[in-house]
Amino acid sequence: MQNAHLSALAAKHEGLERQISAESQRPLPDTRMLADLKKQKLRLKEEMAAI
Q1: Nearest to residue 36, comparing CAs of 9, 21, 11, 16?
Q2: What is the pLDDT of residue 2?
Q3: pLDDT at res. 51
Q4: Looking at residue 1, what is its pLDDT?
Q5: How many Å from the N-terminal Cα to the C-terminal Cα in the chain?
Q6: pLDDT of 1-50, one tens digit each?
Q7: Do residues 37 and 23 touch, judged by C-beta distance below 8 A?
Q8: Can you give the pLDDT at residue 31?
Q9: 3-state SS string over 1-50?
Q10: Contacts of 12 (CB under 8 A, 6+ apart)
Q11: Among 25, 30, 2, 31, which residue's Cα sits nearest to residue 10?
């Protein structure tokens, strides 16, 4: 069960990484959105480390 949960968290983490990368490459990136995405990614990383 924990393996499935960890896999789901890792998939979400990877998706956030792709969103951050895409937004960063735009001519005028939305800095507020980037900050929010990075916070979400950090929360997921912390949750994965706790498992």
Answers
A1: 16
A2: 84
A3: 85
A4: 66
A5: 11
A6: 689 999 999 999 999 999 999 999 999 999 999 999 999 999 999 999 99
A7: yes
A8: 97
A9: CHHHHHHHHHHHHHHHHHHHHHHHCCCCCCHHHHHHHHHHHHHHHHHHHH
A10: 44
A11: 2
The model carries a pTM of 0.88
Q: Which position has the token pair 């990075």?
A: 38
CA dihedral over 29, 11, 48, 44, signed as positive or negative: positive
Contact 41, 17 (CB under 8 A): yes
* Cα–Cα distance measured from residue 39 to residue 18, given in angstroms and rounded to the nearest whole number: 14
What is the spatial distance between Cα 49 and Cα 42, in angstroms, rounded to a whole number?
11
Angle at 7 between CA 6 and CA 8, to 5 degrees: 90
